[in-house]
Design goal:
The chain is an all-alpha fold. It contains 12 helices and no strands. α4 packs across α6. It is globular. The model is unreliable at about 290-295 (pLDDT under 50).
Length: about 300
């Protein structure tokens, strides 16, 4: 049993070692300037990861902006307001979204979501919010906006399930005490439940962020794959995971391959830190407690 446990740790160590070793050429050639440069030129072996970092952060943050209200609303409804007959099926269908393969999300986005965004959503955003600079330019369809929307759909079940788990362990007497003081049902949920579960909810959000940062296939299919830093969300972009999926098999030079592996190392470390922080925040609320059986 000890060997099995150490084997998992050994795999993690080997992954980190391989990434560090394989990216050493890029580290020696570019140093920390690699993450500040914006020139990605494999022909002349000039590499900078800033456009990919920018695309990863923008698409992930956009996904959180869309997914957080929807996820928390679904979790509150299923734990506090949903009839018992609908609670199980609704929870099942929400969690079913997490089981759909990423490539299926990408195909659906190409044939359904992107045309809808191009025809209906983007023109409205350009007309009403174009003055902000975030919604201007040609309506490509394949854009940072499309990547953010598909990521939001993919992380909803993660944030929602974690939030539902955290809300379920809030003591029942906390709800009863708030209602006994004359609070309305919404005030009870806002003050007695959400306030006590906020650390765990933040943990679920960060866990969803970790999924969004590392998502590859669906984002690659709709983001446009152009290594540029543009303010408008209508413009194509690139993410760290997408450049690995698109260019790793085409990398011929040693420096080119090492630069891609260095991007993979940075993405791996960021994902590990984000997931560890999320688990810690969730644990501070649940403390290993099981969910209430009557919820």
């Amino acid at each position: 049993m000890t060997a099995c446990a150490l084997g998992i740790l050994g795999v993690l160590v080997l992954i980190v070692w391989e990434l560090v070793w394989r990216s050493s050429l890029s580290w020696h050639a570019f140093g920390l300037k690699f993450f500040a440069g914006s020139d990605w030129d494999p022909v002349n072996e000039h590499f900078g990861a800033l456009p990919f970092i920018y695309g990863t952060l923008v698409s992930s943050l956009l996904a959180l902006i869309i997914a957080i209200p929807l996820s928390v609303g679904v979790a509150v409804f299923t734990t506090e307001m949903c009839p018992k007959k609908l609670r199980g099926p609704l929870s099942f269908f929400v969690e079913l979204l997490a089981a759909i393969p990423s490539v299926i999300y990408g195909l659906w986005a190409i044939f359904v979501m992107v045309p809808l965004l191009t025809k209906y959503v983007q023109p409205v955003l350009a007309k009403s919010l174009g003055w902000t600079g975030l919604f201007e330019g040609p309506l490509f369809g394949y854009s940072m906006l499309a990547a953010g929307v598909i990521l939001a759909i993919m992380i909803v079940p993660i944030i929602s399930s974690i939030t539902r788990e955290v809300l379920a362990v809030v003591p029942q007497h906390q709800r009863e005490a708030v209602l006994a003081l004359g609070a309305t049902r919404w005030e009870m949920i806002r003050i007695g439940v959400l306030r006590n579960a906020r650390a765990g909810i933040v943990g679920g959000i960060i866990l969803g962020l970790g999924r969004a940062l590392g998502e590859t296939m669906a984002v690659t299919m709709v983001i446009g794959n152009r290594p540029e830093i543009v303010k408008s969300l209508f413009a194509p972009g690139y993410t760290m995971a997408s450049v690995l999926a698109n260019e790793f098999s085409e990398a011929t030079g040693d420096t080119y391959l090492s630069a891609l592996i260095e991007i993979g190392l940075a993405l791996f470390l960021v994902t590990i830190v984000v997931n560890a922080l999320a688990r810690l925040l969730v644990w501070t609320v649940t403390r290993g407690q099981p969910a209430r059986g009557n919820v």
